[in-house]
Specification:
Oligomer: heterodimer
Number of helices of chain B: 7
Largest sheet of chain B: none
Strand content of chain B: under 5%
Number of strands of chain A: 0
Distance between the termini of chain A: 53 Å
Number of strands of chain B: 0
Number of helices of chain A: 8
Radius of gyration of chain B: 29 Å
Largest interface: A-B, 58 and 50 residues
Helix content of chain B: 55-70%
Strand content of chain A: under 5%
């Protein structure tokens, strides 16, 4: 039963866990390692999954804690390795457009990495995962008002940076 | 500036205030891409859209091998396995049941309101509810989480009002009973 819960409800989350880990750590290999550690932990704790109301929120919380531990042990903030990241799939038709899109993507990545952790997570859950305000509040164990405040500040900061810095234009 | 532009501006303002629903945000993204392709908003929207749709390109077989090594009961989901088909299609989390004190009052108030509605309001037929759902499709786009009661004081007030509403007919009945008794006493003062 517990293994079945893992297979049906935790294993399908792996790509999404990876995206969040990348958002938190800013480095692909580190994010991959953290997802592996989290998955192993979740597998070890699979008997507890029966008792858990919201397996998804629980998995995201565990990943967040693992990411924070990893981040502390590294004692550095990484955004440099983005240049070594795999080439994203691009819809741009010509090479110059592709370069522009890559640069813009890296720029937005860097701006988001500069946000405080909670703000980054709120923005990720809303914009990438398309979660309701209540779901975000549940996952991060914060109030609805706090979700709105963090979202407001994150969006404003992103917009301000994009407008202010001409190289993002 | 026409009304439509004003509406979009208002919606954009609400987007930045964190007050828009997911449907409104989708509409906004479409509006920005069509009307302001070089704006910061369009760039943000394009970026997030790609983040959401892109797969991680990670070979998960290494992880599954580790899990198999941990315990032989782990198996990789098979192709066509309906239980594994959740990959790429995010599951919506179930609603959490809270037992925090600040939520207890809110749930009690909601329960009292439901009971009051069941006992006091006239029963709707199935046809009525279908008709009303069709008549007000806008309710589907409302973000009801905005109206959730989180303030204990507000919950307490609602609970008091609901209980008062339930109690009113009972008090009425008690009053009527007393009046009837008084009339009987007037008609027959010596109890004969």
């Amino acid at each position: 039963m517990s293994a079945q819960i893992f297979h049906t409800r935790v294993w399908p989350l792996r790509d999404r866990l990876y995206r969040l880990a990348y958002r938190l750590l800013g480095e692909r290999t580190e994010a991959e390692d953290v997802v592996q550690e989290t998955m192993l932990k979740l597998w070890e704790k699979r008997t507890d999954l029966i008792e858990v109301n919201n397996v998804e929120a629980w998995s995201f919380r565990l990943l967040r804690n693992q990411s924070i531990d990893r981040y502390r042990s590294l004692k550095r903030r990484t955004t440099q390795d983005l240049a070594n990241a795999p080439e994203p799939v691009s819809n741009a038709s010509n090479p110059s457009q592709q370069i522009e899109q890559k640069e813009l993507r890296q720029a937005i990545d860097q701006i988001i990495q500069g946000l405080p952790e909670q703000r980054r997570m709120v923005l990720h859950f809303r914009e990438v995962e398309e979660r309701s305000y209540q779901e975000i509040a549940d996952m991060l164990d914060i109030s609805l008002d706090q979700v709105r405040i963090d979202l407001h500040r994150a969006r404003k900061a992103l917009r301000t940076q994009l407008i202010k810095n001409p190289c993002y234009e | 500036m026409n009304n439509s532009e004003r509406d979009w501006q208002e919606l954009t303002r609400r987007y930045y205030a964190g007050e828009t629903s997911l449907e409104e945000e989708k509409a906004l993204r479409l509006h920005w891409s069509e009307n302001a392709p070089d704006s910061a908003e369009t760039k943000m929207a394009t970026y997030f859209e790609r983040e959401a749709s892109e797969s991680s390109d990670i070979d998960w077989s290494e992880l599954s091998a580790k899990l198999v090594a941990e315990d032989s009961s782990f198996r990789l989901p098979q192709v066509g396995d309906s239980r594994a088909s959740g990959v790429g299609s995010p599951q919506k989390p179930r609603n959490l049941i809270y037992f925090k004190p600040r939520f207890l009052l809110a749930y009690a108030a909601a329960l009292a309101a439901i009971l009051a509605a069941v006992f006091l309001l006239p029963q709707h037929t199935e046809t009525d509810s279908v008709a009303s759902a069709e008549g007000f499709p806008i309710t589907e786009s409302v973000d009801w989480s905005r109206y959730e009661i989180t303030d204990p004081e507000e919950a307490k007030t609602i609970l008091q009002q609901s209980l008062q509403q339930v109690a009113n007919p009972w008090n009425e009945a008690t009053r009527a009973s007393l009046n009837l008794k008084n009339i009987q006493l007037l008609n027959n003062p010596f109890g004969r």
